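tool_log.txt
---
The assistant was asked to compare two proteins side by side. It first ran the structure predictor on the initial sequence, then on the second. Raw inputs and outputs are pasted verbatim so the downstream comparison step can read them without reformatting.
(1)
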Amino acid sequence: MAHRVTMIPGDGIGPEIMDAARRVWEATGVAFDWDIQQAGSEQMDRTGTPLPDSVLDSIRRNGVAIKGPITTPIGTGFRSVNVALRKELDLYACLRPCRLYPGARSRYEHIDLVIVRENTEDLYAGVEFDAGTPEAEKIAGMGAGRIRPGSAISIKPISAEGTARIARFAFEYARHYGRRRVSAIAKANIMKFTDGLFFRTCSEVAKEYPDIAYNEVLVDAACMQLVQHPDMFDVMVLPNLYGDILSDLCAGLIGGLGVAPGANIGDACALFEPTHGSAPRYKGLNKANPTALILSGMLMLRHLGETDAADRLERAVAAVIADGGRVTYDMKHDREDPTAVGTQEMADAIIEAMQR
């Protein structure tokens, strides 16, 4: 039976990389019934919102969605379509596997780690007060002289409930995929209450998983260690802000955002998407790298229980990258290399590798 999946092409380069990726996913032999929905800046003129209710209804109904990059309109008061989707659907776990495929541009030879980022709390909860507002002045007055008058203020909420569920997600992922260690990353030596709560709660959850090693690393030390010895890490669980920053750091270790897949997962829905932007200047040029979206679909296949198809797809992507002949310009050692192929041609190469 076909999997009913919400497909959101996005805008900018989104529709063309989605078309390329869709052909690759369908070439695995897995049957899909696509429920195509539109969201993003180009929807503003049509519906007055970049995120119509119909998109959310579709994802809730189908339970699984794949999304291309989306441009958040400027000056609309709408913070981010991506953030809104995570909030409205309670997609509390951001999953970012970072695996280095031989042939990708990197200073390293072997990297295979996973970022698990809490998606709903921390500074990204968006609890902010502008400078000069009564709320900001009131909070500043509670700071015992530690907050300068006229400050803008952000509040950083971290709860035991939110931390426990993201920690449990990280440990369950580690156990399911045979990972050896979960490292909690925060700055508890300075933020003793918020980040301290994050460490304490992760430590309590770790006791439920005696088969998996657990340790705690301060976020600044983790950044240094990732650059010097990335093999020290396996699964990393982080609050929202640190998780966002370290996700991109780790993407840089494996060749950049063009090869970095992502997923946002909750108890009722899962949304799979690449981590790069919509790159509107490349729209329609058949130039953008489709790898991150294709690999996001690989994560989707695993989520759907299509493990064999996911494995074949990943091996095909790895083979094309290792060969290096039919890849987009950003994956060439010289970005001006005339042998670089386009978006659709790289998808063709991956399909052919699967068929072999």
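(2)
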Amino acid sequence: MKAVKLFLIATAIAALFSACGGKAKNKITLEEAKAGRDRELFLEAIKEIDKGNFDTGRILINTMINTYPDSPLARAAKLANADSFYLQGGSKNLAQAEVEYRDWVEFFPDDALADDIYIKMAEIHLRQVLAHNRDISHARFAEQRLKEMMRRYPNSDRKEEVEQLMVKVQEILAMHELEVARFNYVLRRAAQGAQIRTEEILNKYPNFSRLDEALWIHARSMIDQEDTETASRDLTRLVANYPHSEFRQKAEALLKEWGKPVPEPDPAKVAEGPPQGKGLMSRTFGFFFGPKIDTSPKGVIIDRDLKPEEIAAHAQELVGLPTPAGLTTPSAGTTTNTDSRPRRAAGATQDVEVKPADKESSSKEKPASKDNKKDDKKDKDKKKPDNSSKVLRNP
């Protein structure tokens, strides 16, 4: 009997803990719609994100967008939501940030910030680039985003910055191809494999810092396939354009052996001096730690170096709202997009119920009787429409 009692008590306690530990249902946030409240919610969200409370900030953004879908700040709020995932970091959050940025730029392709969005999507992948001898998928995605930005916005004021970033990205991609070419030629003795990889470099990455080595391996692979004419062109190009290359003397020796003319080095190339970053120390560092590309720690709108009030003022100026008194905006531009269609913010875990500002307006009128039909018709003509039960929109 004692064992039975103990079993029943243990079962009751387990059931109690199970009930208490169950997953709570999502609460409904009651939000009273009133003029100016959209700006307050936006500022509160920025403050929470600035503190590192990303989930709370996204809930506030979701509340603002759903309560005030016609607010001019809805566009900036959607962008701030994407920034929150970028600032939080981590592979999952960065992937969600790109989804949010992509959704935003497809909805507002003519906005003045659209080119910045593409650069930010490229930076998302650059933050995840591994060593060039490992998976380089993120480097390829970054290259695609930069090319897409240049194709869509050829007159962007950030064109020069994108071109410099493209050189760094393509350096990673070309180095990966060179590693594979080395493996094919040195270890596998696969001349065709080395030829394909080096031709990829020669055709696509003319600014590669180790193009001289790509030329040398390509020439050697063609010699193994008994194509000395192509190899001669590679060696001639190597001697003329890369006078400081470690392969120059070998290339000259082969040209002399075949009775081919040895060109004089380009004086401009000689004056440039040997390229930097090709020494043993640099190669060792790159092998263990991978490429280093600096990316911005800031979002498109949210900059943690600024105060939340400054960020909110900047966002209001971007969407054409008057800047609050006493606040200055940091180098804000103006947008040419007039499309303010709302979007629902992702990542929020609460539903939003809009509470009318005037409770008395929610009462329903009784239907008019047939006897008073004429009187009701006269009153209806004189009566002004009652809009107090509608959600107030931000002017």
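---
observation on (2): The mean pLDDT is 79. The first strand starts at residue 28 and ends at 32.
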